[in-house]
Write a structure and sequence with these properties.
alpha/beta
Amino acid sequence: MPTHDAGLMLVAGGGGFIGGWLARDLLARGYRVRCADIKPLDDWYQVHAGAENLVLDLKDLANCRYAAAGMSRVYNLAADMGGMGFIESHKADCMLSVLINTHLLLAARDAGVKRYFYASSACVYAADKQTSTDVTALREEDAYPAMPEDGYGWEKLFSERMCRHFREDYGLETRVARFHNVYGPHGTFDGGREKAPAAICRKVIQAKRSGALDIEIWGDGLQTRSFMWIDDCIEGINRIMESEIREPINLGSSELVSINHLVDIIEEIAGVLLVRRHDVDAPKGVRGRNSDNSLIQQLLGWEPSTPLAVGMRETYDWIAAMMTGMDAALPRAGAMNR
């Protein structure tokens, strides 16, 4: 049997947004942490000196075996994903993430890992339950009959089932959380993979700096969502991982807002008022989606509760600082000719 350090944790996708914050939290709580991510180290959102940081493609079984060796717990947050613009145009790439979960489950089983966390998504929910802006909050059972987001949602739903059957057939204790739109600092805000909160922050900052006080919004802006602050997400992961909750559970805020109202919040933070141009042909996802938190309240006595306006202020300030730094790093006009 493999030997384990009771405090040794693998964060798969540790170079990503949520993975970077999770690794930081685990280190702060005294655990030994191994992070693995496909991205070059310079592209990781956070690199922690106290962690063992491995650049590995976890779609490969041998790499998963290497990463999982000796681990007590595995947190699988690794996936090829992004905002709605990305997942609607990269369905095959998103589905290839099934190789990560498949191979990481096999490696965890064979390494004798004690507990395994899988980061699923609200994209598993049936599309016919998300056709109205005045949405009924989604309960865990609403994932079936299955009609998830094409590509990304199907991969997540299939991987949830794999976790269930590895628990039933092999005794690997698995925990599954369905994330609802996580946001915060140290994430992507440009390049095509960013999600709505970060994308709108970037657009508002650009408009304010340029003096061209207008903004493009994907869709009519009436579509509704909930957005979960990163600290709440990390707290939820920890609580679910320590619990005896064996079935998938929602992890998201229940504060429902329209995209137009999200813009209102960011405009107020920035101190600007913008003219809105709506691109109704742009990717916009389902019409309405919210998290029903009845089950997590019942089982854990807790739910994500950070107000959107509070988390968005910190997110906006971080993105503004990053964009200022990026501007400062650019060569001045004519500098290349000197």
